[in-house]
Amino acid sequence: MNDDSTRGWFSGGGRDTSQLDLGQGQLVTPRREAQLATAERPVPVGHDTVQVDREMFASDRVPSPAVATGDRTPDPLADTGSVDVSGVRLRSVEQHLDEILGAVPQPAPIELAVLDAQGLLCAELVTSSRALPAFDQAGLDGYAVRSADTTTATVEVPTVLAVVGETTAGSAETTAIGPGLAQKVAVGAMLPAGADVVVPAAWTDQGLARVQVYAALAPGSYVRRIGDDVSPGDTAVQIGTPIGPAQISLLAAVGRERVAVRPRPRIAVLCAGDELVDVGATVGPGQQVDVNSYALAAAARDAGAEAYRGGILPNDRRRMVELIEGQSLRSDVVLIAGTFATGAPDVLQEALDELGGLSFTQVAMHPGPVHAFGTLGPTGVPVICVPGEPVAALVAFEVFVRPAIRLMLGKRQLFRRTVQAVSAQQLLSPLGYRQYLHGQVMRHPDGGYVVEPIGDGDQAMLARMARANCLIVVDEDVTEVSAGGLVTVMPMLLGG
Asked: What are the recorded GO MF terms, alphabetically (predicted)?
């Protein structure tokens, strides 16, 4: 998989889309577009598949990705600025993303109980004030002995030692052994003075008064010495380390009940639209259930944020202003989904203008090209507006909002990893727009990946989207990818 920590999938890496010659058409680039200007353009064929036809992936029908060739390296001369489509100047995906990432805040570290810190990044250098282990102890159940007493021990000729006692974990009694003696010990028990080896119980006859030892061990075998793990002053957890179960175990061991972390960003999710009704309401003619506030809040939580579902904005400018302003006071980012008017009066745009104004723009992407971004209030809280169509809203979240959340969390890798996959069928895309198609990707029998789109890019097909496990990314200057051509695929793994 590609490492996209440097936004690799936004660069020109996917522009020279390679293909396998299956005799099923050619890749259409701008130059090829000019050649086809007077020819009949291919008509998109509706694809209503919701389950992957695995026969499409049979090696005799789809060639192995291993034999596909093509230069996928980024073009250093690629223009990442505005895109000119039919005389309309569009903002590129990179431009809009850069503006968002440049404005999102970096929340100050907070101190949390170690269990509450799970999944976050450590924001302090944690050093140990104690040694781990704090005393010499047995590494497993067995017998503590002197290594010098077992140098000749074998299965055929075992060494016989007298057992002088037993020590269990938690016992504070100080004991000692001399030559020819052994002491039974449990894992974690204090090692008796004089012993330098613990013989595993399985390597003995497990005698009670006398024990036969069947193997010779080097000094220090199965013994944990003071400070073997951590010594006083050693670093336990570095700044920027993700705190998981192992880190929580270590923090507890060095005596830390609380730790400073990068907090989860607080995201308020709101939806605008006269047609929206709550989930439990009766849906009348022309009305739609508010699914975006649920979907976007869930996506924000999956990305690591603390999401608040604000629900549907009232269709009244004064109340809308009050609600947005209130959410901005409690949030690090306000996320609004809505269908925005172009030229006609729009209550949401008027409310945002009253609060300080946002920049509404056309982004060269499909689905959902209309977006807005700006900062509101004295503290400059970022407000991100995404399209109101549910499928377009979640695509916009993946492209713009999820990277912003990961940046606020302090993550090094902002974007999902991507792979190159063979397309199982022809893909058509509008010239000048970066297309994101939901699809299903799986491994090819001969290696690599094969992907099949689910649907035809329709923005309203929720059931199809729910069956997808990836996004197929088709670059702006590619209008057609033939079956067998290579495309960039972004697997959609929860928490990935």
From this structure: metal ion binding; molybdopterin molybdotransferase activity
**What is the mean pLDDT for each group of 10 consecutive residues in the chain (496 residues)?**
37 35 35 38 35 48 44 39 62 95 93 95 94 94 96 95 94 92 96 96 95 95 94 94 96 95 96 89 88 95 94 91 92 90 71 85 92 89 93 95 96 92 92 93 90 71 87 94 94 67
- Taking alpha carbons only, the member of 83, 9, 11 closest to residue 364 is 83
365-366/434-443 β-pairing: parallel
Separation between Cα atoms, residue 329 and residue 331, nearest integer Å: 6
CA distances from 19 to 38, 64, 342, 475 (A): 24, 12, 39, 14
Contact status, residue 453 vs residue 425, Cβ threshold 8 Å: yes
DSSP string, 126-156: EE-SS-BSSS-EESSSEEEE-GGGGTT--SS
Whole-angstrom distance, CA of residue 174 vs CA of residue 157: 32
Give the count of beta carbons closer than 10 Å to the beta carbon of residue 13: 21
CA 448: distance to chain centroid?
22
Give me the sign of the Cα torsion angle 430, 436, 440, 445: positive
Q: Which residue has the tokens 């069956």?
A: 467
Q: Enter the pTM of the model.
A: 0.76
> How far is the CA of 54 from the CAs of 418, 424, 444, 491, in angstroms?
22, 10, 10, 18
Predicted local distance difference test score (pLDDT) of residue 46:
36
State the DSSP H helix or E strand holding residue 387, giving kind and residue range, or none if neither: strand 381-387
In three-state secondary structure terms, 66 is helix
Domains of the chain by start residue, with CATH: 8-80+418-491 (2.40.340.10), 110-132+228-261 (3.90.105.10), 137-224 (2.170.190.11), 266-409 (3.40.980.10)
In which residue are the tokens 């140098």 written?
151
Q: In a 10 Å sphere around its CB, with 0-12 CB exposed, 13-18 middle and 19+ buried, how is residue 134 labelled?
A: exposed
pLDDT at position 49 is: 34
Residue whose pair of structure tokens reads 């409690």 in the numeric block: 330
Cβ–Cβ under 8 Å, residues 424 and 399: no
d(CA 28, CA 40): 13
Cβ–Cβ < 8 Å for 121, 241: yes
Q: How many helices (H) and strands (E) does the chain have?
A: 9, 29
Instruction: Report how far residue 378's alpha carbon sits from residue 389's, in angstroms, rounded to the nearest whole number.
Output: 31
Chain Cα centroid distance, residue 74: 24
User: Which residues, 6 or more positions from 461, have their beta carbon under 8 angstroms from its beta carbon?
Assistant: 391, 455
d(CA 218, CA 222): 10
Q: Which helix (H) or strand (E) covers residue 164, if one does?
A: strand 159-167
